[in-house]
Queue: 2 jobs
Job 1
Amino acid sequence: MKKYGVRGLLILLLIVSLLVAAGMGAMVIRPIQVVAILLNKLGWSVASDSYTPAMSAVLLQIRLPRICLAVLTGSGLAIAGASLQGLFRNPLVDPGLIGISSGASLAAVAVIVLFSVLSPTGGLQGHYLLNLGTFCGACLSSILVFRFSRVEGKTMVATLLLAGLAINALCNALTGLITYTANNEQLRSISFWLMGSLGGATWTTVSSLLPFVVLPVWLLPREGRALNAYALGEMEALHTGVDIRWLKFRILLLATLSVGATVAVCGIIGFVGLIVPHILRSWTGSDHRRLLINSALAGAILLTLADVVSRTVIAPAELPIGIVTALLGTPVFIVLLYKQKKNLYNHNI
Amino acid sequence: MIRVKGLSYYAGGKKLLDGISCVIRPGELTVILGPNGAGKSTLLRLLSGERKPDEGQVLFNETVLYSLSPRQLALRRAVLGQQYTMSLPFTCEEVVMMGRYPHYRDQPDSRDHAIVAEALSALGAGHLSRRLFNTLSGGEQQRVQLARVLAQLEEKDVKEAMSRFLLLDEPTANMDYLHQQICLRRAREFCRRGQTVVMVLHDLNLAAQLADRLLVLKEGRLVAEGGPRQLLGVEFIRDVYGLEAKIFYPEPGGFPVVITNLQSC
């Protein structure tokens, strides 16, 4: 009962937060007007005197792409976080913390400078090239950290975090180095995008991100059962019939695909992959068959609302969304760290 | 029936198993004995299909074990390891249900749920089903894991019945006396249903009480095999463990009891 109720509730919350996000801003659009504009756009004529043409333009050209971007990024990051936590068998894992995002970000900067792809204004092809680059960067750093942190099939928490720290530091240094050699125009597009923001949302960026998030959100929940068995241990998963090499390959591939693509479009937005699964686990348990798809939904809600906060709290200026998610995420991270510390202590006795 | 033919296994330039051949029959509870580092756990790993041998072959009902896919293998055999740590919070019910994964595609049906509940209560762990696995004590965790592997080998209906085998690596290590007995009894009941059970034990008295057949390993070799009454003797314990011991038979025709001499080591 609770299992299915939670998903329904999350879908409801998502719809509400979409309407809130569509309506809030310098120009307030009421939910009924939002619905009317959308229906008219879809070809169903509804009385159009309830809203002004300006409202329609703002909604369709500015807010809607941004909301779509928030939904895609949120669900992509959250589902990647949840499945990587399953793969590393540790709730502390977040694509940002263990260096996957910074690997992707380094690759993106390299692509921008080396190939002069201007990310915010370039066409779809440029975006796909950027996506490819970030995917390679994300893959490389996730494989590195996965190899580093595991001893005899077990994830060492300290090594995991240290490896993440090292990869983050190295990637940031290299990013700095490349930035140093960039010309003015490149510099502008790099810094625009390093801030981690949904501000660059257009229908082009949305469509460049769409396949790389839809694919993981569609395929990753199918691995739920195998990931549950994997939580018992690598060999135990094998003994219950899971092809573990294939599982590891698919999880790493799909999770880094979605992290890489979101980094390519919005820069690094941290902690989404950490907070969302954490909240859901304490609510509905660890079963990945529910957790993964619920994470995607809750991630979309979280990022949509965080974006509303980021663009309204100091309007007309914008607070980078990464700051909002970090403010929410760091306390969660500390709580998780504290719990693990207690666990380790108990094991040592 | 498990048929082991000339099994050898090397790791790090060392020969961990050296030409082991034996036959393990269904309905005959088989216990592997031997000192530390004799290769007991390695043998169990090869029998489980987790590792492949460098030489030799393992046949289960005349099928080469290593030709089966992980899922095919999972329907035929279950393995209980020595220790489990789970850092993600799962309830015991969920953990035991993981044993049913090879048996269903999307959702477990009522039969799967019934098997899980039965398995837990058969090990005196029914009251733990809603508790989080990582908050349990070592012995309780081990019981839940044993429930999981027993649930894995439970068939859904008679149609899919096939012969199966169960491998246990020191199943009673962290358990209190009562639960040791309960667990070993469940393993023996499973065996008496015509299935194959192999376990590693350290306690000679438990082995004597329980086993139909003993396989004794020393330095990677199979040095002796036979029934407890036939094998367990003063000479044997001195040879294998380097210990002096006395053997008693509390009941005529019953199992032997080994009492070691503390001064001898």
Job 2
Amino acid sequence: MTELQFTRAEDLPKTIHSGIARVDPEPLVGVWHNTDKATPGIVKLILSLRDGAFRVRAFGANGSTPHDWGEVGGVVYSGGVDSDQGMAFTASYQFGFLETTLAVYLKQGILVLDSFNAFDDQSGRNDYFSREFFYQQ
Amino acid sequence: MEEPRYTRNRDRSSLEVAQSNAYVEPSDLVGSWVNTNKSTRGIVRLILTEVDGTLMIRAFGASDPQPCDWGEVETSIYSIGVDSNKAVGFKALYDFQFMETVLAAYLNKRILVVDSYNTFKDESGRPRYFWRDHFHQ
């Protein structure tokens, strides 16, 4: 049997399998609200499954009517090579003038969201990072 | 002049006169970073350098007897807000052929928090996984 390739010790599982591994996104699915009611960032996330595919819909802070970013696909990650339970995801929004990458993980029932935002509109705004926390009702 | 577009309130600049050119300055991230956990199974060390305004990263994965040198790749850097020029976060992509690792990192009180989102492409049965490491200088 061929030895597994790895980049660090954590890449090596306790049990060897083969084929394509699936990560169950169920622990992430639901409606998530920002813990900060006055956030200038993302106010709400709807994480869902459609035909087995993980979907992300985010809403940006914008007065009394949040800005609906629409739905995009997300990629789900487990907590390690020996786990199949989803506990993190990434997703990317292309707004034309701005690209936002969401890098998100679940910790003790709180969803921790990092967003990496890169402008492409010559507006002089700097690319920026932000971190926000979400709870499920 | 056309009003800059936005996706959430955080995208708005508070400057009366917009910067003519966006620029994020990486010096706070530059240097050699060592994992706070001496027995990590993830990334043991990072070297961040600035080359012509681009932040480069060289990571070393936990492996016996020698750390695994991942080589050097470019990063994209991010400030803490649209009006800030100081880098506090970065993203980088390592493509190892058999797997792909996205690093999403930010600086918090001189601790560099590095999340890795890892996807195997070798049909070894290993699931995508998330991993977090903390580094000091």
